Each structure stands twice: as C-alpha cells, then as structure tokens.
Automatic annotation (TrEMBL), chain A:
Region named Disordered: 1-25
Sequence intervals crossing the membrane: 65-88, 100-123, 151-176, 196-214, 221-244, 277-296
Source taxon at top rank: Bacteria
Biased composition (Pro residues): 7-21
Key words, A-Z: Membrane, Transmembrane, Transmembrane helix
Protein's UniProt name: ABC-type transport system involved in multi-copper enzyme maturation permease subunit
From TrEMBL, chain B:
UniProt biased composition (Basic and acidic residues): 377-386
UniProt xrefs under SMART domains: AAA
Protein name: ABC-2 type transport system ATP-binding protein
SUPFAM superfamilies: P-loop containing nucleoside triphosphate hydrolases
Keyword set, alphabetical order: ATP-binding, Nucleotide-binding, Transport
Originating organism: Streptomyces olivoverticillatus
Family: Belongs to the ABC transporter superfamily.
UniProt domain ABC transporter: residue ranges: 2-227
Length: 300, 386
C-alpha cells in the first residue's frame, strides 16, 4: 500500500544517483532489452499515404480556397460575360469566321495567375514556416513528398479547370452558337476543355517546381509571372528589324499566345494544334527534375 | 541509440560542428547543452538527415536516418515549435503527418489528449501561444510512438505547469526504455530532468558525462564561513589558520569567506583550535548552471556588454577636477565572486577585477548607470567573437 506522503515517482529519480565506482554507473540500467516497442501496429508508409497527407494539407488552408475560388470566379465570370456581351451586341448580317470557344480564353488567362500562386504556395509555405523539416522527418523519402504534392496539385487544378472550361464552353456555344459561321469541331472542343485544363495544370506544376527550387513564396511567384508575361511585353517594344526573329519567337511562344493557340482552330503562325501542351509538358518535366535534384541534394 | 562519429558540418568558411563523436543511449534523458550558435540545432538536423554532414556520420539505431525502415515510427522530433502552417488546425496538421507516416488516424486524437490540446484541436494554429505551439510540436514528435525522441528547446514558452509536465514526460519516456535527447538553455531544468549531459561549444564536444560528474568536475564546492561582525582580527586569525591548514580562502564582500580544500569538520576544528567563534559554517554545492557557465565561458559567441550610452553622456567636468575614487561596483562582480578560479585553472579572461572599475574615465556622480567598462574588456570580447 502506498501512503499518501510517499513520492509517486522514485523509479525515475533513482537513476540520477546510482552507486559510484562502476564504469558507466550513471546509466540507468533499467531499459528493457531491445529498447521500447510501440504497441501501435507498424504499417509501411506508402505513396498513397503521402497523397492522402498532401490532400489533407491542401484542403485545410484558406489560401487554397481563396486562390481556387478566385480562379473559378474569373474563368466562369469572364467567360460567361464575354458570351453574353457578344450575343447581345451581334449584328444580323454576315457571320464572322472567328472560333466560338475563344470566348473562354480571357477568363482562363487571368486564372493562370491563381494557378501559379497556388502551385508555388503548395511547397513554399512549408519552407516559409519550417514545416518542411517536420514533413521530411516524417517521410525521409523526399522524392515521395514531392511526387505526392505534384499528383495532388495536378489533379486538383486539372479537375477544377476542366469543370469550369467545359461549363463556359457549353454555355457560350448556346449563347453565341447561331452567330458564327461554323460550329466548333470535336477537336476544338477537346482542346478548349481538356487541353486547356492540362495546360494550366502543367503550368501549375512548373510553378511548384520553381517554388521548390527557390523556397520563397514571393520570389517564386514573381519569377513565374515574369516567365509568363515578360516575353510578350518585351516583344512589344522590339522595334529593331534585326531582332524581328527574336520578337516573333517571343510572341509565338509566350504563355498567353500558347493558350490562345489551344483555343484557335488551327491556322496560327508558328505553333498550332496541341503543340503548346507538349511545350508546357517539357517545361514542367524539366522543372520537376530540377526540383527533385534540389530537394534531394540540398539541406533543408 | 544515437551515435555520431566525427560529425562535421561546414557552411562555407564557417564550421558549425566540428568532429563531434558521442552516443546517446536508451533509457536515459540526455541533455544537450551549449551556448547560442554552438551547433546544437545543426547537430539535431544532421541526426534527422535534414542536413548532410560535411564529413563523419550519425546513425540512429545503427543506420543513417534516411535508411531507417519506417523512420517516423522510430524517431520523433520537435525542432521548432513554430514549424506549422498557421492556417491549418492542430488536428489536421497532425493528421497530415500521421497519413504521411502510415500511422492510424485514431492516434492523432490520442496524442492531442496527451499534450492537452483536445479543446483547441480544430482551431487554426495561428492563434496558438508559444506554449501551445510547443505542445503541438511535442504531439507531433509523439505521434509515431517512437523509440528515439529529439526535442530542441521543448520548454520554451511553457508555463510552470507545462514545464513540470515536460519534465515528467521526458523522464517517463526514458523510463520506458526510449532514447530521449533534449536540448535546453534552462540549466535548472536540465539538472532536474537529464541523467546525462553532452555539452558542446563552438561546434566541438566539451563534455560527455553524467550530470553529477559534470557538476563536480566543473565547479568548486566550497564552504561559507563567517566570523562575528565587527571583529576583523578574528577573521584574520582564522584566515591565517585555515591557510596554514592547507585551505584556500576567498573573502566575500559581506564579510564572509569562501573556503575550499578543507572539509567542513576540519574547518570547525581549525576554528576551534584558533579560538575563533563562527557565525556561519555552511556547505555550498555548485549548481549545474554554475558548472555550465564555468565550462562554456570561453566558448560563448554572443556576449552582451554594458549599455554604455557613451554618446549621450553629459560633457566631462572641467579639466583638472579630480574625481574621488568610485565606490566598489557591484556590476560584473558575479562573474568572479560566483566562480572563484580553481587551482590549475585558466583564469577567466572575462572576469574583470573589481578594482579595475575605478580606473575608468571620470564620470560625474550625478549621471546614473554610467559605468563605462574598461576598454580592454570590450576589445577582448570582440576578438573572442571572431
């Protein structure tokens, strides 16, 4: 029986004052052989677990809701507004030969900024707060962490953009369908919905990679905005004729033009068809490879 | 079991950790001490595989961290209490870590209960106090119920109740046979919690021994002796007798003496033999803090100096006006009165003799708190910091 006066924790304190004279006598020799064994069953950590973890992370912060909410608002709002304006102000007479689905382009172009921001924030906030150390302690396989982030982010952006662009395309074609010369073909539909969504998701992956490389939210977002807008802006001011080729390339390969190509019916100078998607796929792959190498090599 | 062998980390020209070799064994709380910037956190990051050692290696349970099977189930760590996304709730933060490590989600609510955060589990951690953040960090470390636990400054910002809780938690974890490695600046806390100490300074190992050994090796236990006030001849008599008996005597400012080298009964005998009455004869056991300060005084990178406000002093009095000698300055006196220089010990370069203070430039007595430190003290400090 324990009397109330007795101190409840003598076993822990006893090791502090062991008998002297023995070598290493200060080590409390009370540790069970083999150390502590947890009763919680050991389950191997998998990529699936990492994906679930990243999903928990991305859905539990407000910046995700804000950036994606703004993106949805921009893509839907501007896309539908453009359709409404065109349908309201249309003249009766000769039908213009412009592609119908490009009405969704303006909203998507603004939406890219949200995708870039979210892509960078997905990893850079971990560096900003120091959470990355906790994450990498919980999962020493750094490649798995980045893979899970990339998969979750890609699917999230792709899914949301697909829903928005499809909705905009359907509504706009109902509003403006009778006013254009020809209805969009199946390929045009596919490019304007799935193609644009893939393009945006890949652009977001590039932002994620830049965020991993730079580890700083503001810096990475600035770099990505520069990559997106500067070629177009610079090309606007290249008046010298000797720079004409450079100017042309910068115009053609700028991100807004690539997006427009995905909306157009084909006859564009320079690139056409699905090419923008392959370009962005290459950029995102290169960026992610660099991000993997950086994440694995560098101290965090 | 954590084992470091020749662990070295350089950042460019700066060596953060130099040739550290130590073992942290299971079943005990091992304290990790060192001044600011001495490489404690760098060492902890290298143990966790976050930083790559420039040379040497460190293993946990015989393997480098990144080669451990189910690492989060074997090692748990609290590195930085603020290392959470402020917008995420405590529960979801832990849930994401659990999912990442393959730990059942039910464990999340369990550890939230252990650290006492169940009531705020669904609140965003931005609003947490530092103490609550520490509790959340400890919860994350305990999530995998691991065998090896690392805590970097776990009691920072905790209230007394929380400090007591952490102390008992560490001891309980160690008593269960786990390896507990904890860094802290709170010496009194370490003295109560740790069984074993690893002390580093400027990235180098300074001590690796039990708390008890550390204190006795790095401090002077002494006896405080006081003779009746107002009878200085008694005091001189006793001093002479004690020195003759082989003791060392250091006078204290309040008229007492510190005697080393003689056991208490012997001091009493000597006093009796010299026919001196004693008002006080008390043993003084050095604290861990004292031992730590004594050991690391040469390895401190960031040392505070007096705020002299030199540019804001009123102009010096007219030329030729001689100031009377300044009274004895209590400032900085603790350094030498608290830690008398032992035999065979390198004198503390920072302990400035009190007598040196009046040699400072004359200062009008009306100026408050105007005690300029001797110039050479500052110089030595800045040389040392390089």
């Amino acid at each position: 029986m324990t009397t109330p006066q007795q101190h409840p924790a003598p076993p822990q304190q006893a090791p502090q004052f062991p008998p002297q004279g023995q070598p290493q006598g200060y080590w409390p020799g009370q540790a069970p052989a083999g150390g502590y064994v947890s009763p919680i069953p050991v389950r191997k950590a998998t990529l699936g677990g990492a994906i679930a973890s990243e999903w928990t992370k991305i859905r539990s912060v407000r910046s995700t809701m804000w950036t994606l909410g703004v993106m949805v608002t921009l893509v839907l709002g501007i896309g539908l507004l453009a359709g409404a304006v065109v349908s309201g102000s249309a003249h009766t007479g000769e039908k213009p030969d412009t592609p119908l689905l490009i009405l969704g382009f303006y909203g998507v172009l603004l939406g890219t900024i949200c995708v870039i921001t979210l892509g960078v924030l997905t990893i850079s906030t971990e560096y900003g707060t120091g959470l990355i150390r906790t994450t990498l302690t919980a999962c020493p396989d750094r490649g798995r962490v980045l893979t899970a982030k990339a998969i979750v982010f890609f699917l999230l952006v792709f899914g949301i953009t697909l829903v928005c662009t499809t909705l905009v395309s359907i509504v706009d074609s109902m509003l403006v369908g009778d006013l254009v010369a020809h209805a969009p073909s199946g390929t045009e539909w596919l490019k304007a919905t799935v193609g644009v969504s893939l393009y945006l998701a890949l652009l977001g992956l590039l932002a994620l990679a830049v965020g991993t490389l730079l580890r700083h939210s503001a810096g990475a977002i600035t770099v990505m905005l520069g990559v997106m807008l500067l070629p177009l802006v610079l090309a606007m001011f290249m008046f010298s004729s000797s720079l004409a080729d450079v100017r042309q390339a910068m115009l053609v390969y700028s991100v807004p033009n690539q997006l427009a190509v995905l909306y157009s019916s084909g006859a564009s100078n320079g690139i056409s068809g699905w090419t923008p998607l392959w370009i962005m796929l290459g950029l995102a792959a290169a960026g992610l490879l660099g991000a993997y190498a950086s994440l694995v090599q560098r101290d965090s | 079991m954590i084992e470091a062998v020749g662990l070295t980390k350089r950042y460019g020209a700066k060596t953060a950790v130099h040739n550290l070799t130590f073992q942290v064994r299971p079943g005990a709380v091992t304290g990790f001490l060192g001044p600011n910037g001495s490489g404690k956190s760098t060492t902890m990051r290298m143990i966790l595989g976050l930083d790559r050692p420039t040379s040497g290696y460190v293993t946990v349970g015989g393997r480098p961290f990144h080669q451990l099977p189910n690492a989060p189930r074997q090692v748990g760590a609290l590195l930085d209490a603020k290392a959470v996304h402020g917008g995420r709730s405590a529960r979801l933060h832990l849930l994401s870590l659990a999912q990442l490590s393959g730990i059942p989600a039910s464990r999340v609510d369990e550890v939230l209960g252990v650290v006492g955060l169940q009531d705020v589990a669904r609140k965003r951690s931005k609003g947490f106090s530092l103490g609550m953040g520490q509790r959340l960090g400890i919860a994350a470390a305990l999530l995998g119920d691991p065998q090896v636990l690392l805590f970097d400054e776990p009691v920072n910002g905790l209230d007394p109740e929380g400090i007591l809780w952490v102390r008992n938690l560490m001891k309980r974890l160690a008593a269960e046979g786990r390896t507990v490695f904890v860094s802290s600046h709170l010496m009194s806390e370490m003295a109560l919690t740790a069984d074993h100490l690893i002390v580093i300074g400027r990235g180098q190992l300074m001590a690796d021994m039990s708390v008890k050994d550390f204190i006795s090796a790095n401090s002077a236990d002494f006896a405080r002796v006081r003779t009746p006030d107002g009878e200085p001849e008694q005091r001189e008599k006793l001093t002479a007798a004690l020195v003759e008996a082989g003791g060392r005597v250091l006078p204290e400012q309040d008229g007492g003496m510190r005697v080393t080298g003689l056991p208490l009964p012997r001091i009493s005998d000597v006093a009796h033999g010299a026919d001196v009455r004693l008002w006080e004869l008390s043993p003084h056991q050095a604290s861990l803090e004292e031992a730590y300060m004594r050991m690391t005084q040469g390895a401190v990178d960031y040392r505070s100096t007096d705020d002299q406000r030199a540019g804001f002093q009123p102009p010096a009095p007219a030329f030729g006006h001689q100031m009377p000698a300044m009274p004895q300055m209590p400032q900085q006196g603790w350094q030498e009165t608290a830690y008398p220089v032992l035999e065979g010990e390198r004198p503390n370069p920072y302990a400035q003799p009190v007598a040196a203070a009046p040699a400072a430039p004359p200062v009008p007595p009306s100026a408050p708190a105007s005690v300029p430190a001797p110039a050479d003290l500052t110089k030595r400090d800045s040389e040392d910091a390089r």
